[in-house]
User: Fold this.
Amino acid sequence: MKVRSAAVRRQGGAQAGLGYGYPDIWHGIATLFLLPVFLAGLWPARPVCIDWRDVWKPGQPNSLGRMGLAFLAAGMLAAGATIMIVGMTGVFAPRDLAFMHMSRTDLQSICPRLVPVIAHDRAGFGGGLFSTGIILLFISRHAPLTRSLVQIVALMGIAGFGAALGVHPAIGYTDTVHLAPAYLGCLVFLGTVIRLVHEYRRAKDYWRGAAAYTTAIEFSSLVPVPEKRYIGSCFPESSCLFYWPAPAWPRTPPG
Assistant:
């Protein structure tokens, strides 16, 4: 997915550059070199059975934490699409020009190639943000709740929101309207991580109790052993550590 995200981002930047006279040959060469690496990594990771219903059908039970991830993914998709469109059309938002106290004509008078370079970078950033939003959306719908998932989401948010909110005060660009979506996203991110940690700990405590109960009924001669039901995830290659007589419990223990 990371390779796919990089490929989408590079192609978005290259298309914007071509529209503004910036062909960016080195990015095109890098994309060509990444293509076989992308295909080589995609082929072994392909699922045993491809079901297109998985695109809209969730693979994990819904929860507040997953809803928070889905909200963040939707915000990233909207922001990435907006930045891509602006980068490939007008390049600058009105508040950007107001902050610089310059017009687009003033920037072109400094260097005719300045605007194409900015358009290329903005479209590339928008493409990367959009593709990351797609990845986060499918993570929220299909990824099992594990410690690694919580850690990765936390690191993603710290890197993304830390850079987005940290660079603006450093350069003096503190427009409230411009930064409002980033502040809202940061608050949702903090609440989502806290909720995911709570859900992970609750699921882990439950599976500990399930393991203790299973051990007790297996080794007790006074209690008949019920019929075992296999509880596994929806992926064929995964395995389950416990057996449980009730079919309505979570499908996999947290990692």
Remarks:
- Residues 2-143 form one domain.
- The chain is about 70% helix and 0% strand.
